[in-house]
Each structure stands twice: as C-alpha cells, then as structure tokens.
Amino acid sequence: MGEGGALNAVLASESLPASAAPTFAPVAEPRPQVSVLLLCFRDADYIRAAIESAFAQTVPCQIIVSNDCSDDATFDIAVEMVAAYRGPHRVSVRRTERNLGVSAHFNDAMTLAQGDIIVMMAGDDIAYPERVATIVRAFDQAPDAMVLGSDFDGIGTRGEPIKVSFRVRPERYELDYYVRIGRLIGLLGATMAFRRCVYDRFGPLLGPIEDNALSLRGALLGQSLCLRQPLIQYRRHPGSVSGTVFARDEPRAVATRRRYERTVQFYRGTADDLESCLRQMPELPERKRRLARQVLAMYRIEADAREAIIAQPRWRWLGPVMRGLAQRGLRRKSAERALKLLLPRSWFGLR
Length: 351
Description:
Elements: H1 3-14, E1 34-40, H2 47-55, E2 62-67, H3 74-84, E3 90-95, H4 102-110, E4 117-122, E5 126-127, H5 131-141, E6 145-155, E7 172-173, H6 176-181, E8 193-195, H7 197-200, H8 211-221, E9 223-235, H9 241-245, H10 252-279, H11 286-311, H12 318-325, H13 331-340
Parallel strand pairs: 1-2, 1-4, 2-3, 6-9
Antiparallel strand pairs: 4-8, 5-9, 6-8, 7-9
C-alpha cells in the first residue's frame, strides 16, 4: 500500500468510537531496495508528468518527492498527487524550509532515503517505466559498480523531441578514464543512480552541484557504468538546472562571464568533495590515489584558470596555464588557453 493509502486507512480507524477501535501490534515495513529521489524546484509545468512516470515504475520503490521551497505551484501539485496515489510504492512529499540549492537539497533529501540503491530524478524529466528495473538489473550483474548513468532522449518545453549534445561515456570505466579523457565531466545527474555507500561512506556532498561529486565518489569506490539504453526523457528548457548553471539561455553579452563564474564554484566544490573523500580513504591503493590526485589537480587548475581569465591581468594567467601544460589530461586545453593570451577578451565572449 502507498503512503497515501496508509493515511486513509489511519483516518478511517480514528473515526471509530474508542471502545470499538481495533488495536494492532506495530509491524515494521521491509526496507525498500530502491529509493527514488525526485528533486524539484519551479517545475509546476512539468512536475505532474515527472511524478506520474515515477509512479509507473515496475519495481516497488520508496519515492520521495522533495521540493526546494520553490515559489510556484510545484509543491501543491505534488501534494495533491501523492495524496491521491494508490499503488505499490511507498510515496511521500516534502518541502525544505528555505531554498537550499542543488547539492544541499540533495543532502537534505538523502536523510530520508532508505533504499540500498538511490535513483535520481528531476522534476522536469520523465522516466520510462522500466528505468528502475533496468538499473537494479545492471547493479546485480556488476557487483563492483557503484554508480551508473544512462543514455536519454532529449525533449523540449512542450515535450517535443530535441537534440541534446552530451559526450557519450564508456559503458564501463574506472578512475583512470577521467585523467585520460582530459575533461571535467561526470555522469549526467538526471540519469544517475548509485549504491547508498557512495553517500554513506563519505557523508554529505560539498560544493554546489551533485553529479560530478557523486561520479567521482563512485569511481573511488569501484566501477562506473553508463547504460546504452535511454531510460529517461531529459528536458532542456530555460529554467532547467543545467541551463542556469551554464548560463545557456542568458544574453550573450553576459553568458560567458556567468558561465565562467559558476563553473569556478562548481569545480572548486567538486575538488573540495574529492579531497575530503581521499582523506577518509587511507586504505586506497597507491595507483588509485595517484589517479585521484591527478583528477583533483585538474579541477583546481581549471578553476584557477577560469578565475584568472575573468578577473585577473593576463600575466596572472601564466600560472594556471603552465600547471595545466604539466598536467596529463589538461595539456591540450592549456595550450589552447595560452593562445588566448594573444587575443582580445572580446574574441572569446568576455568584456
């Protein structure tokens, strides 16, 4: 019985006279195998489809709809849908007391998750019915896998198919991939699932964004998977989290600067989280520690380089450029950045 149904049952028993009301010994519900964290913020136009897709999952789950204190009707719609739900999932809805931001909202919602596998959902995306079942099967078949993502189908504001550019990750990879690829990319957060030890082993995430931090934690603890099967419809629209972080829909005159400023925060927060995790893993094999330190250096160098470009005189660019040229994985990007020393800032979108 879903929590909405359980609530109705409790209300019915409370309407009986005290002498006639039956008494029951408390029975502990079995711990769910999967918890779906459906995190939403200003998603009033999309939340109904997102919640319906969570309810349609073919594996019984704990479904937590968590709203980050948005100022629209998102929470009211979610409350209505959860109250009316009748089905196999254990569903609940809640709202933060104040707006926390992406990563802090995730940390707050994780305190309620009970499953051994955590499946992420956004309030503007739509999961296919077999998503959770496919994720569970993938983890069962790959016991060393700690985190996974999947392919997706892009959709726009009205649900129309659109092309969303996103670098394809290998189907199975480890920490050395991040050094070899030379790009600071993790799994797409909207497609992500992970074993709960990825969170419990290290505690709350640091930094403003969750996907790269969780991707790197998973790589520290084991393998990463990226399933070739599209498991969600990933919505791109002006109010989406990724659009806000990377200033995709802002005026060109300010977009590059804002994107640089936000990615500086993003990179530094991810580096802080990875560094904290490394301090908690004295048992990590030396080769893996060396790779993790290279990834950490890449994040630090890229944050310093972007900050220098937007806020410091050109001679201050030289430090991050030289460090990048010496860092495997960043040499090409640092060489390209060195060429920018010869160009006006306006040529690459800065004033």
